[in-house]
Amino acid sequence: MPRRLVQFLVLACAGLFAGCAASGESGETDAPRGVIGLSVLTANNPFFNEIADSLREEAARHGYGLFVVSGDNDAAKQQNQVKDFIVRDVAAIVLTPCDSKAVGPAIREANAAGIPVFTADIACLAPDAEVVTHVATDNYGGGRAAAQAMLEALGGRGKVAIVDYPEVESVILRTRGFEDEMAEANKQADVNVEIVAKLPGGGNRELGNKAAQDILQAHDDLAGIFAINDPSALGARAAVESAGREDQVVIIGFDGQLEGKQAIKQGKIYADPIQFPDKIGNQTARAIAAYFEGEQPVSEILIPTKLYRKTDAEHDPALR
């Protein structure tokens, strides 16, 4: 069936998208230039919902609709979602990969179908998978900022651990940035911070809590935990409180979600390098529009983080 006819049928049936919306799916009905398919890592994290909301808003300004599904941290499920996007003959596909390497075959299928693929927040690390533009936080820089916050909180001395999530590229960069900054800082005579553990925490509160519990049991003299996102940080904080060591162990998070900011204001998390998911969604939509308007695509767009401490939280109108 010709591509233009399929796109017409997709738009004509857009109401069916909305009628079928469930389990993290949502569709758009007013899309004169086509529908963009977005598969996020998870709909249970407000960060990805904000990316979707801002992408939808900016895409609409350019005449595109947005159909959103959640990969639910399942690479196989996300691959099937891409297959569905291809059947629907969407105008473009945006992915926040559930697994940066395992997403490769899905992207290659879209490439073969002639549908441009963009990634947001999490990059693809698979070879021979073509992505037009990757839009993300400067996660490496954010990891270095997290280390700076840890050094500040500990006065440059102590044993620290990382609650990690090594399946996704964005976290790989955060962790690398944190480790590199610590390694450089430790060259100074008055700095001695040792990273004694690094355990996977799944990027969520429950698994982050379990990883932190294991770390705390293994290290009685632990002084700090860097958790790679706010859900992990909140899980780690709960583990610290359960162990009665809240006055001993400093938590550094990452993201700047509302709940994370509230924890910073309450002194439960020391600081976050905060991200701007609204800018990620906005810039992704603009990159798609520019691509279809014939502009030369930019391969990567990085958005800097900002270190957010208790003093920032105390003056944050969102927390009043």
What is the number of strand segments? 12
Sheet-strand content, in percent, reads 15-25%
Helix content: 40-55%
Tell me the number of structural domains.
2
Describe this structure in words.
It is a single chain. The protein has 320 residues and is α/β, with parallel strands linked by helices. It has 2 domains: 3-132, Rossmann fold, CATH 3.40.50; 139-275 and 309-319, Response regulator (Rossmann fold, 3-Layer(aba) Sandwich), CATH 3.40.50. Helix content is 45%, strand content 19%. It is built from 12 helices and 12 strands. It has a 6-stranded parallel β-sheet, with helices on both faces. A 4-stranded parallel β-sheet has the order 7-6-8-9, with helices on both faces. A two-stranded antiparallel ribbon has the order 10-12. α3 links the parallel β1 and β2. The radius of gyration is 21 Å and the shape is elongated. The protein starts with a helix and ends in a 6-residue tail after the last helix. 49% of the residues are buried.
Short description:
This protein has 320 residues and is an alpha/beta fold. The protein has twelve helices and twelve strands. The chain has two domains: 3-132, Response regulator (Rossmann fold, 3-Layer(aba) Sandwich), CATH 3.40.50; 139-275 and 309-319, Rossmann fold, CATH 3.40.50.
